[in-house]
Write a structure and sequence with these properties.
single chain, alpha/beta
């Protein structure tokens, strides 16, 4: 028993020594590991410190990510497109998704609908740029081609092109070339006409319109207008001698008389000398269709004929046949069609002295942009005169029509018809049976731009094709 006490004491001393050794080792480990000794595992306080450092790094990384996310959101709102960092999705907002505005609300995010943003749109606004994908993402599909617009169920047929207006070969259908003929002169289509007997106009300024006269119209006052009407004369001269009858007569000494869009005709079996007889007044005739009598217009006063169609004919055997007869006055034809199939006198005949020989011609004739064919001569401006006197002759930009078969000569009368007779191009090979013109004076006006209707080759007053301009 006494022996065991010393043993217990020795054990206690050994335990105390072990404790002291362990305590001193811990103190040494807190400062540094001696050189050449193997590093020991970290103590508890070291593990805590290491854990704290990791928390700090994690917080720092989260803050960094939040800042980066805020910057990307700000760029998206400004219209920029940013590639999302690897491993972090950053899709562009949908059109119906709120767009964050930096610097307001929680974490600087306030939801604002795109259409309520009062700021001006940045350049390129309105276009959508798809977000860039991450490496390894499936390749985006190629955009499909836009589909072609569908055809309407009942497409309208294409409008055919308007053919150009012919400029030659106008004789057979003058309106084809824009010249007057029965289709575009006289009473306008759709006009309602009121039947009437013969009329005598005595009141100045009277307008006669929309009447269908069976008989005649006689004008005795200034500034009278006859328009949109038809006059069918019923008197007759008989088959052999002219009597001076008419469809419309304008008495001498008047001014401002106008006849427009009027058709003149004659009753069956009746004979008539002139469609319109102007005995000495100022008269204008427009868009008239004149086919009643042997001649179309008699003018003893200044007369203008525009946009009108007249055809001469012979029903009185001893009558001189001409579309226009004028005597010691002025006559102007502008854009008319005047045709005379009869092989005597003229299309336009200018007399002097009423048929008595005089020294000086005083006729003032202007023909412009018209289509002429036929007569003994097409133009006969100064008959029964020896000198030009005060006369003028201006013939500008007209078509003269002629037949195209071989010319032959007829000894009886000296005419020169075509071997094939009248054809679709004209009546006679030189426009008139004898030629283009007679009884004219050179140097009294202008001859310019006149051509053959069939081929538009230049034509001179004497029938030549050069040397007259």
């Amino acid at each position: 028993m006494h022996a065991s006490r010393p043993v217990r004491a020795l054990v206690c001393l050994l335990l105390l020594a072990s404790a002291l050794v362990a305590l001193s080792g811990s103190a040494i480990a807190t400062t540094a590991s001696p050189a050449g000794l193997r590093a020991q595992g970290p103590r508890v306080d070291e593990r805590i410190a290491a854990k704290g450092n990791r928390h700090d790094r994690l917080r720092h990384k989260q803050q960094k990510h939040r800042k980066a996310r805020h910057r990307r959101k700000a760029k998206v709102q400004a219209g920029a497109t940013e590639t999302a960092p690897r491993g972090e999705a950053s899709p562009a907002p949908r059109l119906d998704e709120a767009v964050p505005t930096p610097g307001s609300g929680r974490n600087g995010e306030v939801k604002v609908k795109p259409d309520s943003d009062s700021r001006p749109a940045p350049p390129g606004a309105g276009t959508t740029t798809p977000p860039l994908g991450e490496p390894g993402d499936p390749a985006p599909s190629e955009p499909s081609e836009p589909s072609a617009p569908s055809e309407p169920a009942n497409p309208s047929p294409p409008t055919p092109p308007t053919p150009p207006v012919p400029t030659s070969g106008c004789f057979s259908v003058p309106s084809r070339c824009g010249y007057p003929d029965p289709t575009n002169t006289g009473v306008p289509a759709g006009t309602t006409l009121t039947p009437s007997g013969s009329l005598v106009i005595r009141q100045a300024g009277t307008v006669v319109s929309g009447v269908d006269v069976t008989g005649t119209i006689q004008v005795l006052a200034d500034d009278v207008t006859i328009e949109n009407s038809r006059v069918t004369q019923t008197s007759t001269c008989g088959p052999t001698n002219s009597c001076g009858n008419y469809a419309i007569k304008v008495e001498a000494g008047l001014t401002g008389v106008r006849i427009a869009h009027v058709e003149t005709a004659t009753a069956p079996a009746a004979t008539c000398q002139q469609d319109i007889r102007n005995t000495g007044s100022s008269l204008t005739i427009e868009a008239a269709y004149l086919h009643a009598c042997d001649g179309n217009v008699y003018a003893a006063g200044p007369t203008v004929l525009k946009d009108s169609y007249g055809i001469a004919k012979i029903v009185i055997s001893t009558n001189h046949i001409e579309n226009i007869y004028f005597n010691e006055t002025s006559f102007t034809a502008i854009h008319d069609t005047l045709l005379n199939p009869v092989n005597q006198t003229a299309v336009i005949f200018g007399n002097s002295g009423g048929g008595r020989d005089v020294t000086n011609c005083s006729n003032q004739l202007t023909i412009q942009e018209s289509l002429l064919a036929g007569g003994g001569y097409s133009l006969y401006p100064c008959a029964h005169s020896a000198q030009p006197g005060s006369s003028t002759l201006n013939v500008i930009d007209n078509h003269f029509a002629r037949c195209l078969t071989t010319s032959i000569y007829e000894a009886n009368g000296g005419h020169h018809p075509c071997s094939g007779g009248f054809d679709a191009n004209g009546y006679y090979p030189a426009s008139g049976s004898y030629g283009i013109a007679s009884d004219y004076y050179l140097g009294t006006g202008t001859w310019r731009g006149n051509v053959w209707d069939d081929n538009l080759r230049k034509v001179c007053i004497d029938g030549r094709s050069s040397g007259c301009e």
